[in-house]
Amino acid sequence: MKIQKPFITHEVGSMAKPGWRVKPFRKLAITDDDIQKARDWGRRLDIEETPELVELLSKRKGFTKEEKARIKWFSSLYGIRLQEKAGIDLVWDGEQQRVEMYEHPVKRMSGFQFRGHVRSFDNKYYRKASCVGKPGLAEDLHTQEYRQMAEIARNDVKVPITGAYTIVDWSFDENYVKDLTPGAADIHERRKKARSQFLTDVSRETIYPTLKSLHEAGAHYLQIDEPAATTKRDEIPEFITSVKESIGDLAGKTFFTIHICFSNYKLLFPHLKELEGILDEVHLEYANRDSQESGTTPDKRFGYEILHDLKDTSFIVGLGVLHIHTDFIEPPELIRDRILYAADVIGDPGRIMVSPDCGLRTRTWGVTYDKLCNMVEGVNLAKRELGIG
């Protein structure tokens, strides 16, 4: 399912959660500042239901299960309206319904037990699980979540889900390797086989049915997040196979994008070409590696070198134009130049979609909103430069 409209914009997936969204679930009291921020953002985003949220938050603490669910709904509403107000084409709520990208799906799968928290980066942590049996779906991962987002959103909705390889790579394995004997002559081959079976089971038994359920529910844009894709360079072929098994017979029936970030992208080639006709878009991170100087020459846009490897593929290029680990607000002119450089390399504006490098959950909503607004303005500047609508 291809799109030919040039420079469609989207946020990759995650945004920060407001304090008033987090505190009720941590049994912390809502403060005057929390309520004022809910009121201010509601006014800024033209949210008519804000008085209901303010009244709800005025309870301060002791929220019921139903009240917490309503607070989460409001957080989704605010997240979607923020993206729409910024002018984003494909929207999502910034994972307001999820703990984070790993724990949310794994806690809804059978065959896993959580072992404790580990640090991912900065002061961000996630609960790491161990596979103790064959993985399966214990409950719906994202379909009900999508239906709620679709009811709220005025724009098209994109659903991000965590891919099979990342789930496997970020988990301990106590199941598939339990019969391996340390020191056996064929230990490496057997370990590799066990790893492949773990990956196959997650792909076929959890990710494929999730994607199928979302497709049947009407989701037209599905994003597979695979930040771990190049973690082990000798497992790139297994990663490619896991994507094929996750999508299966759904290829061509809806728009599939894969998001890979902060990696040695050279390791993906030529293996990535096996996914042509299966994936529509490949989204990578570029701005993090790039200069902040204006210009459309290679010496200014050195962060976009991997575009030359994507040029001769059939993929739509998901172009990261915002650095997500800094509060630097990229000027529209810088974003324009990054887009123009990519358009020149790829040769077809219809093969480029524009977004931040990754999710913006490490930034405040104020910084996120300003970055996204400038991203949309940068797209408009690039279109005018190229004389396209």
UniProtKB/TrEMBL annotation:
Cofactor(s) needed for function: Zn(2+)
UniProt keyword Metal-binding, yes or no: yes
Species whose genome carries this gene: candidate division WOR-3 bacterium
Protein name as it appears in the record: Cobalamin-independent methionine synthase MetE C-terminal/archaeal domain-containing protein
GO terms assigned for molecular function: 5-methyltetrahydropteroyltriglutamate-homocysteine S-methyltransferase activity; zinc ion binding
Domain Cobalamin-independent methionine synthase MetE C-terminal/archaeal positions: 78-377
Keyword vocabulary terms for this entry: Metal-binding, Zinc
Annotated GO biological process: methionine biosynthetic process
